[in-house]
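Students often ask why we bother encoding 3D structure as a string. The short answer is that it lets us treat folding as translation between two languages. Here is a chain of 399 residues written in the first language.
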Amino acid sequence: MSNDKNPFKIIDLRAYVINEQGSGGDYHDRADGHWLVDGIIATPMSKFEQYKKSRTSWGIAALGSLYLEIETASGKVGVATGFGGEVACWLIENHFRRFLVGADARDTALLWDQMYRAAMPYGRRGVAVLAISIVDLALWDVQGLIREEPVYKLIGGATKDKIPLYCTGPEAVHAKNLGFWGGKVPLPYGPAEGPSGIQKNYDFLAAQRDACGPNFPIMVDCYMALDVPFAVELAYAVRELNLNWLEECLSPDDVEGHKLLKERAPWIKWTTGEHEYTRYGYRRLIESRAVDILQPDLMWMGGLTEALRVSAFAAAYDIPVIPHGSGAYSYHFVMSQPHSPFCEYLITSPKGDKIEPVFGALFKNEQIPQNGEIILNDEPGFGLAPNPGAVEMKLIRAE
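And here it is in the second language, the structure alphabet:
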């Protein structure tokens, strides 16, 4: 087949900044009071008094969301959303376009490698990889559209009939009432609170346990806010509460610290990976067996192409891979991976008591959980149909 007649040939791409709070791939773009416990939530910035009481005050949502279209000669347009806003859009339009337009959308391994190597001097982690992730997801989406198959069928097919979900939100009892098998809550206090922080965390988590009963699985998201001594002390303090896991307690760079957590408190599962990037970042976590569960975000860590590489590596060590958030992207990944037994649903309603689309109004048919699970449909691609005009966006073009 000549390239001119190739339906997978990319003829254009369009990157948009999303200018509407609550829509798109930036989970953080919410009102200041969203999910706060006692007016605060533990973060890496909790040590600074002026940034303790608002997640948005220190800039977590400064980049915002983007939306990408990849148009092919077939007339099919693959779409994806993610995190990185105008900066990621600029990279896609001004840097990555040269590799994409004229290329075959099926050549995901080649295109990923070209983008990553070209951005290596300034983007082995962070915004450049965010941009690569969104391009990669749109490439998989358009392949599915042209082939008229869901993405999970392109990457191995179904390994389960349905996907059980746990729910992340401010109160675990909402997850239980909505039918999820477990609930994950944010930790409110970090090391800056000193010894009283341990007690206040215990009080909060004990209340969660009381509200949910003795057997409902409860997980705790520590969001890189802790250090090894505080995390270990917390694990001992809450041991009687029968928590399922403590998540992302440390900086993602502290692999040795994660190993210490497992050694010093082996009775609880320790998980991380949400803020790690590419297979190179996960290699040490896997080889050192520093965590019990890996949690990559497909919109951040390099897209589906890179997530499959990480997953294959983790499978050799029998480490489950349970993606962070990512909505439909995670569902297709989990459906195809035998060692991904369940998935996260990140609830976005302000009080965490109402199921809403992960990406807001951006898509008109986003699947949302029913009775705490997803029965994935066979819509082509990722099954996300654009909702034209529903969300304010700005096209970014090279000058």
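Translate back mentally: The first helix runs from residue 85 to 100. Keep this in mind for the problem set.
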